[in-house]
Amino acid sequence: MGGDVGPRVTVPAALQALASNPALKLLLVGQPDAIQPLLAQQSAELTSRVEIIPAQSVIANDAKPSAAIRQSKGTSMRTALELVKTGQAQACVSAGNTGALMGLAKLMLKSIEGIERPALMTILPNQQKGQTVVLDLGANVICSSEMLVQFAVMGSVVAEEVAKIASPRVALLNIGEEESKGLDNIREAAAILKETAAINYIGYVEGNELLTGKTDVFVCDGFSGNVTLKTMEGVIRVILSLLKSSEEKQTKPSWLMKLAKKWLKKRLMKRFEELNPDQYNGATLLGLNGIVIKSHGAANEGAFKAAIERAVQAVDRQVPDRIAARLNIVLPRSDQ
Amino acid sequence: MGGDVGPRVTVPAALQALASNPALKLLLVGQPDAIQPLLAQQSAELTSRVEIIPAQSVIANDAKPSAAIRQSKGTSMRTALELVKTGQAQACVSAGNTGALMGLAKLMLKSIEGIERPALMTILPNQQKGQTVVLDLGANVICSSEMLVQFAVMGSVVAEEVAKIASPRVALLNIGEEESKGLDNIREAAAILKETAAINYIGYVEGNELLTGKTDVFVCDGFSGNVTLKTMEGVIRVILSLLKSSEEKQTKPSWLMKLAKKWLKKRLMKRFEELNPDQYNGATLLGLNGIVIKSHGAANEGAFKAAIERAVQAVDRQVPDRIAARLNIVLPRSDQ
């Protein structure tokens, strides 16, 4: 149990997730001395669905991924992934070192056949009150056209199976809508997707369409995907802080005005909260033979609970199996 | 006079700019028949500072830049750039085809010595009530490390001369703050900037820092820069539209509540408007021997006026000369 805070956040979050889902069982991988006290005074019903799996070390958040992976034996992250590999767990949720998690997960669980490299994916709410599947968010800074096509296939499956969108629209992030725009890999991926009947490819989108719902699947390389997601988060945080400061500055409002403002602020915050990084936490590492969810390192209890729920959803919808099945239909197998 | 609408927006915007700046003179380049009627019934004082320069054709917004440039003779865009080249005008402002403008401007005005390729730059307001210089916004989808360093130099000059920031902090956009993150060109640029005493280089920033004021100069390749700016615009538009819809839905509010909401919305809108694409319009094509400002194609009168004011500011601050002078100090000359 890593992350910026460790068990003091992840254990209470786990208990919350157990309380709201009676069918859930959780294996808590980490140092028993740190976990055990946090389970004290909980109901027997909850603790009966928890098992502590001892692991004596944790991969540091600032460790270099390559070195961390070489020295990963006995760490909580590796132990958790081993549980998925051996079928003792159906999913792994981690708030730890992102690079180490991606590398170790790929090493231990292997990519689905037909997927060169896994991608980080999230599902964002959009302006149409729907959902948009966005990937890659930073697993791969350089992407070939083939990888972008694989992301499009994986995103389509998630949009159908998790977001329940029939024939989801797929678009590639670019810096203009004209065919001649952008980088070679994007134009080549566009050419392939246009010829792929099983994908509902609609063309290019620009960054301003991230939240508008113009597309159901928003495909990009990991660098641009990280930039667009982080920019979105930053702009929302700035606006939320403007809302707060605009209230603090007000001097001597009448009590009625104060009440009215409080009520309105609550309404506005509720709308913004949908897009608040604390709420939609949990990026899925997509394309592996197993389910791995990456939580923000700085996730609070509610956010880490959201990441656990993402994992449950992926298990319920059998996302890896469905991706493998779709790849068999959509993409030519390299060994045939 | 191109753009999505043409003279019907740009001429009234020009008249507004003239009215608010008694020292300004404007050459309106385009079809006299389209411009002349829009100047009727204006005061002699205003029209005495306007001259119509006839140009019989306009480059279409959707024209392919390479073809448009080949066939640019006699177009309003080329004529306007010729006026800058010959010194008859001190700056060119265009709402026309971005690719054609960049290509033609480079062809006719040439890059400043030491600049491989010009970059699109804008100045955004930030959370600290300061300003952030952001470049490249899309002129160069692929950038070498040298180009990123040149952008850093140009951005520093603009931050000092236009935004009046002493020793401006310069950062490179990346997907993490650790030195090992990102793409080769970014890491190489970081290594050069660290050794460049004349630049106050502070390291990497992520997309979420675009508006926080953590850096004064935000340097990125044109693809990522376009993605981060467009994402910002999109998120702000979505939030503004949420604010509007949250008001419409409210049924039967008391008159006091209605008043409070109106007041708060006005306050909020004022804060957001600072970041509204209609307000900060006008990207500068930086690195040329001349001043060229690109307005949004869809700019309204106020926004196009803002672009004209950007041009005036760049003229006042002698931006190209100062960039050339700084390059002589900072960067080794290739011919020495």
SSE order and pairing:
Two copies of one chain form a homodimer.
Chain A: H1 7-20, E1 26-30, H2 32-39, H3 44-47, E2 50-54, H4 65-70, H5 76-85, E3 91-94, H6 98-109, E4 119-125, E5 131-135, H7 145-161, E6 169-173, H8 184-194, E7 200-205, E8 217-219, H9 222-249, H10 255-273, E9 283-286, E10 291-294, H11 301-316, H12 319-330
Parallel strand pairs in A: 1-2, 3-10, 5-8, 6-7, 6-8
Antiparallel strand pairs in A: 4-5, 4-9, 9-10
What does this entry look like structurally?
- Two copies of one chain form a homodimer.
- Chain A is α/β, with parallel strands linked by helices and 336 residues long.
- Chain A folds into two domains: 146 residues, Isopropylmalate Dehydrogenase; 156 residues, Isopropylmalate Dehydrogenase (3-Layer(aba) Sandwich), CATH 3.40.718.10.
- Chain A is built from twelve helices and ten strands.
- Chain A has an eight-stranded mixed beta sheet with strand order 3-10-9-4-5-8-6-7, with helices on both faces. Chain A has a two-stranded parallel sheet with strand order 1-2.
- The N and C termini of chain A lie far apart (43 Å).
- Chains A and B meet through helix 9 and helix 10 of A and helix 9 and helix 10 of B.
- Chains A, B: It is found in: Cytoplasm.
